[in-house]
Amino acid sequence: MKKLILIFFMLPLPLLAQLSSFSANGYVKYLFSTSKFPFVNERLNDHLVHARLNTRWYPAEPITAAVEVRMRAYYGDSVNKMPNFLDQIKSHHEYIQLDDVLWDRNKSIGYAQVDRVWLNYSQNSWEATLGRQRIAWGTALVWNVIDLFNPQSILDFDYEEKPGADAIRIQYYTGAVSKVELAVKPGKTEKRTIAAAHFSINAFEYDFHGIAGIRNDRWILGGAWAGAIHKAGFRGEFLVSEAPEPLPTLSSYSIFPNAPSLFQNKKPVIGAVLSGDYTFSNSLYILTEVLFNSNGKIKNAGLFYSQALQAGMLSPSRWSLFQEISYDITPLLRGSFYAIFNPNDKSSVIVPQLTWSIATNLDLTLIGFFTSGKHFSEWGDFGNSVFGRVKYSF
């Protein structure tokens, strides 16, 4: 049945492509990786072919429909040597998955999914969107504590679009740069439902945001801002939420499935981010961010990854520091370097990156992923990886 659903979405494309009210774009990527993890004796070499198709249909002036499909083919050591590999790459939605395992062999897996399918209606100051969509709230560039629906890690560099949420979103624009909105992601239980109101205004040359709602059956309040200080970007976010009940761990997402509880008391949980960036005239770019979790751990943070993921936290640690430096070596070659440092357990991850624009719509990227730290520290058990990627966009 899932294969038939995917075919149903793909069949109309050649016909719709002939209509002026239809558009399509996407990319094809090949990614090679070689990795060494502390809990695996040998080095793992892997290959990934990743194709994506984004479509838009405009049947009438106020209506836009979208279907976006991604297909991935994995081959290599991780498929049969990493536990629960298939579960880790699959999407997880409450009601309709719209995905299919195309094949599952000893060292190879093919997987396809519809990760966007929505209908948008826009008229005057009103806009409504129904379906699997990306609801991205927040102003910071690395960590978004007020991104309630799909908080993501910057380390997931190969999924630029980020996952979508099955939700309904209604927006009312009160001005050119201000609006109020309501977004609801229904769940099969109250603990899986997210509902929140969001407003944004512009004042004193700053954008201000506020949110209030319920996530995982607990109240949340938050806000954010974005502006500049002497031409340097200045952003921030904060979120206050009711402490969740202790949650069972998800062993498929954690190296340490039997970790103790991340939530030891009933005090409200506070998350906050401060962010600043600046671009010099010679293209040198600097970005600094600081993340704070009031209930984050200062010891053995690596034990709590699974629970932090379930609670919507961006890190299990108390403090996280981010620093990025980027520079255009030539007009077609850009180098960057960023690091995330845990000041409590002294663990870190360092990610150098080099991107070369080979030709129009064709890029080559080299990425390193190097961690350090003691056993059970936040980054000490993540190992080291090197990636090479070729991407063609159309």
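Second entry:
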Amino acid sequence: MKKLVYIANARIPTEKAHGIQIMKMCDAFTAQGIDVELVLPRRLNNIKENPFDYYGVKKNFKITKLPTLDFIALELGQSGFFAETLIFLIASRIYLLFKNYDILYTREEWAGLFFKDFCMEVHSLPARPSLLHKKTWRKAKAIFVLTSFTKNELIKLGISENKILVLPDAVDLAKFDIRISKEEARKKLNLPQDKKNILYTGSFYLYDWKGVDVLLEAVKNFREDFLFMLVGGSEEEISNLKSYTINLKNLKLIGHKPYAEIPYYLKAADVLVLPNKKGSKISEEHTSPLKLFEYMASGRPIVASDLPSLREILTEKEALFFRSNDAADLVRAIKEILQDPTRAEQLAKNALQKVQNHTWSNRAHRAIDFINK
């Protein structure tokens, strides 16, 4: 049996999406018949739940936490994060001197400073890649990117096309394609049955590229028989939004929820919104949002910003698009999909069918097959 070590400088569990991806990929690698060990830093964490329980993953791989200096908890900004990352990578290098393994897998952009033979995921590119970035990418045995745009940029930077594979994110179908009606989901979550429910999941950063500000501007154009729900914000994000949204009676801000509850919120919705903004290269070309695949797996209709990154997965057969950054056009799209239930149902059905190919198991299988070649 092959041994894979996954190095991730991440606080696990975490309320952020990368925690889901890391844990689900480790689980999926194990399902490929590989012995997996996830190596993490030992950091302060307000979430005390066991990572396997938190993410609904079987305890079929090992998690090792290495000692580090938690500069991130001291709120030292980017310099603190960089210092903590270097300390963690040094600790990982020392730890692995005494380990036998076949595959070293990581998301760490400075891995090339400490390791020679590794595979890595690259989820975004810096505006001005440094020599250290390029050195890491050249040393990597295989590079996995989320979109073709990222692959093409790496090729332009001199990275061999033969070692780059486009590998979009994925979803656990069993967790999100749950057999429960919209009415049952609303009852479970104590939500009103008599309102049109428009849902967004993810962070609430107001002027971030994820487009929460565009969605909130659209909310102002709907009556109180509509309920817009934003699920997943931190306490700080919710606090920052309250003054901005105090007069919006048709808006409900819900903080971070356990991963296992999110499928019920999706099922309770009439429309799921993905309002990513243009103007950010991450948003336009590099992102492959986990929420996109979760939306698709829920069987609910999707309204999405018309961006190249999202078009890599979605077409007009699976979603209704609106002009990015345009709140008025988002209003139009939401009303259009609600006024045509037949079309909404067909879009949701098509999205659910397409997402069957985007499972964590398929993603891990493609990654291992690429590494072996």
